[in-house]
Amino acid sequence: MQIPDALPFPFEFQLPRSALVIIDMQRDFVEPGGFGESLGNDVSLLRAIIPSCQQVLAAWREAGGLVVHTREAHAPDLSDCPPAKRQRGNPALRIGDPGPMGRILVAGEPGNAIIPELAPRPDEIALDKPGKGAFHATPLHALLQQAGVSHLVFMGVTTEVCVQTSMREANDRGYECLLLEDCTESYFPQFKAAAVEMLRAQGAIVGWTATSAQLLRALA
Ligand code: C5J
């Protein structure tokens, strides 16, 4: 399969050696009344990508591709949360504090669940990740190696934090990475624009970008 109009040049992949990786589409970041909104962010920006994510997820499932979902999540005792992550800055709510949808970024809390529109199926990989990157302190690399995966297609939030970090981690582990531009978003549009540019700069130094329509054409 090929996406001829991917940037900065055509992206080639074989579906059996590829995975769709959906980063942190969890209620606390994306739903009104969650952690993200309580910090003053406009979650409607993030919600705008849900329909294109749903279309890609449906087509990928229909084609029989491997799907990975991640959640930024810590153990209830916060043993996997470095103090530096919890104490940085002066936020209104810290990781582990009770928030609008349960304890912030704690596994199993209502706000930590992936939004129902993109809910994982039982046969898909759903991983809690304590870091920004999906490979840090998770079995993701081992699972992908076991499945013979070499190419990753990324969607999710936020572009310049967990998505970009995960793509850079993947790149260092030898994966070919594609980001779907209209399936990722940031609370800060200028950060998204900059992240998209830098990922594909210098001859795809981290990876490629394409639109969901371009991927859907390749899958059809
Ligand atoms: C993610 C964050 N998922 N922005 N987390 O990007 O803290």
TrEMBL record:
Gene Ontology molecular function: hydrolase activity
Keyword Hydrolase attributed: yes
Gene3D superfamilies, sorted: Isochorismatase-like
Residue intervals of the Isochorismatase-like domain: 18-207
Lineage: superkingdom: Bacteria
UniProt entry tagged with the keyword Nucleotidyltransferase: no
Keywords: Hydrolase
Identification of the protein by name: Cysteine hydrolase
